[in-house]
Write a structure and sequence with these properties.
The longest helix has 7 residues. The chain has a 6-stranded mixed β-sheet, with no helix packed on it. Strands 2-5-10-9-7 form a 5-stranded mixed β-sheet. Strands 14-22-21-16-19 form a 5-stranded mixed β-sheet, with no helix packed on it. It is 7% helix and 37% strand. It has 3 domains: 148 residues, Immunoglobulin-like (Sandwich); 149 residues, Sandwich (Immunoglobulin-like), CATH 2.60.40.420; 131 residues, Cupredoxins -  blue copper proteins (Immunoglobulin-like), CATH 2.60.40. It has 7 helices and 31 strands. Strand 17 and strand 18 form a beta hairpin. It binds CU-O-CU linkage and copper (II) ion (2 copies). The site of CU-O-CU linkage (C2O) has 10 residues, from strand 7 and strand 30. The site of CU-O-CU linkage has 10 residues, from strand 7 and strand 30.
Length: 492
């Protein structure tokens, strides 16, 4: 990971100095001077020309172990942060240097299904896939990751994920912290299991299938227990849970409050003050933390108590990744510029309006015994115990046909445990989780929600999908998804 200098030529060039994400030139050498400094993925600007990434096997040092075999996007692990601008065209070329197929999905992008890199866009070994789209969505933190049919869990676990930032002038207008790598930091959170040699261990059978692959070691931006140097002021953290299965229950060890400002689909209406926050796999949240006291602090996770639905699944704490512990430490460096402020209002957000004539669908996220009962109908002994509405994923079956431009109510019914439910190509508003309206920090536009009980969503379909290029919806526990807890829709 290294320096990226930002040139902004071409039709989407912003006025000098007006871009909301800028790069402080000194940060890379400063960070590298320290052992296990928080790595900051370099920034690659889509408006400077086509983004070219190579997917390849690598060897990566996580920091406390011997190096492990990994995979990365033009990196030894993870990939650069891709910068997109609302209103601008983007071209991305992905070359696959692995000896197995992959695909690259743009999670959180409102782009046509033909461009979003689903399992229907495999990139064969030695070949290149090109996608082009126009960015037409508000500022947000999104991401990209491998999504090949049946191997998503293993490839993402090996390192095939990276952050993406969609920017427009909002951040500059708000005055929010926006200097990438200084007061605007990406935090890619993962848990991993290592063997005695320091190699990543990946399993997708037994408990690692039922609960999703989990590990006792926390990794942030690809390293264990890093230190981030921050200015003595407000700092924005762009948090992505890129774990295969684990929910992180985040809090600072001194109990300091922080403000959630954005969720998957961009800014909230106004900042939401919190002291702790659960982030599920696939979700992003942007928070602003105050370091003006000069005091350093640790960001910790509590145990993953949200995974089991009370009393439904008897599982041991060890398997659940119940472990709690520190993720990273922040140290204040008064030499760094502190400039940001926190506005009272962030965005106009339409009031959720549920018209009675909307189409309603129920999606039962099935696993284990809840699906075994019906397994003779669809393949007997070979049926996967994972599916949606009793059916495991079939790439040749279209499950739903929502109207392009329309809205629908989706009732998500998680079975056995909580599941992070994700829809491609659409944003939704949460109407209810377990009978309650969503808390303030989940009241914005979302593409992924942790269904801890019956969850009601208002989904807006604004991007086209066809039989040939459908959109996916699935559980973001990647082992559940690979095993069949996924479906597809086309728009009509
Ligand atoms: Cu982030 Cu279909 O996934
Ligand atoms: Cu997605
Ligand atoms: Cu699941």
């Amino acid at each position: 990971m290294g320096a990226g200098s930002i040139e902004r030529p071409g039709r989407c060039r912003f006025l000098a100095g007006a871009a909301s994400v800028s790069l402080f030139p000194g940060f890379v050498s400063r960070a590298n001077a320290q052992a296990r400094a928080l790595p900051i993925p370099r920034l690659v600007d889509s408006t400077a020309g086509p983004i070219r990434l190579e997917v390849a096997g690598a060897t990566h040092a996580f920091g406390t172990f011997r190096p492990s075999p990994t995979m990365g996007y033009s990196s030894t692990y993870l990939g650069p942060t891709l910068l997109f601008r609302n209103g601008c065209a983007a071209d991305v070329e992905i070359r696959n240097l692995l000896d197995e197929p992959t695909s690259t999905h743009f999670h959180g992008f409102l782009i046509p299904a033909a461009a979003d890199g689903s399992p229907h866009h495999p990139i064969a070994p030695g070949t290149m896939w090109r996608t082009s789209f126009r960015v037409a969505q508000p500022a947000a933190t999104a991401w990209y990751h491998a999504h090949p049919h049946g191997a998503t869990g293993r490839q993402v676990y090996s390192g095939l994920a990276g952050l993406a930032i969609v920017e427009d002038l909002d951040a500059r207008r708000h005055g929010l912290p926006a200097t990438y790598g200084i007061d605007d930091l990406p935090l890619i959170l993962q848990d991993r299991a290592f063997d005695a040699e320091g190699r990543l261990v990946y399993l997708n059978r037994g408990p690692a299938m039922m609960m999703g692959m989990r590990g006792a070691t926390f990794v942030v931006n690809g390293v264990v227990d890093p230190v981030a140097r921050v200015p003595a002021g407000l700092v924005r953290l762009r948090i992505l849970n890129a774990a295969n299965a684990r929910n992180f229950d985040l809090a600072f060890d001194d109990g300091r409050p922080f403000a959630a400002i954005a969720t998957d689909g961009g800014y909230l209406r106004e900042p939401a003050q919190l002291r702790s926050l659960v982030v599920a796999p696939g979700e992003r949240v942007e928070v602003v933390v105050d370091f003006s006291s000069g005091l350093g602090v640790r960001l910790e996770t509590g145990s993953d108590t949200t995974a089991a639905l009370a009393g439904r699944l008897p599982i041991s704490g060890r398997i659940m990744g119940r472990g709690s512990g520190p993720l990273l430490r922040f140290e204040v460096d008064r030499a760094l510029p502190a400039q940001g402020r926190l506005p009272d209002r962030l965005r106009e957000l339409a009031t959720v309006h549920v018209r009675p004539e909307l189409v309603r669908r129920t999606l039962s996220l099935d696993m284990g015994t809840s699906m075994m009962r019906g397994s003779s109908e669809h393949g007997g002994a070979h049926a996967s115990p994972f599916g949606i509405n009793g059916k495991p994923f079939d790439p040749n079956r279209i499950d739903f046909e929502p109207r392009l431009g329309g809205d629908e109510i989706w009732d998500i019914a998680p079975q056995m445990m909580s599941h992070p439910f994700h829809v491609h190509g659409a944003m939704f508003r949460i109407l209810e989780i377990d009978g309650e309206p969503p808390p303030a920090h989940l009241a914005g536009e979302k593409d992924t929600v942790l269904a801890t009980g019956p969850t009601k969503l208002l989904v807006s379909f604004r991007q086209p999908a066809t039989t040939e290029h459908p959109f996916m919806f699935h559980c973001h526990v990647l082992e559940h998804e690979d095993a069949g807890m996924m479906g597809q829709y086309r728009t009509i």
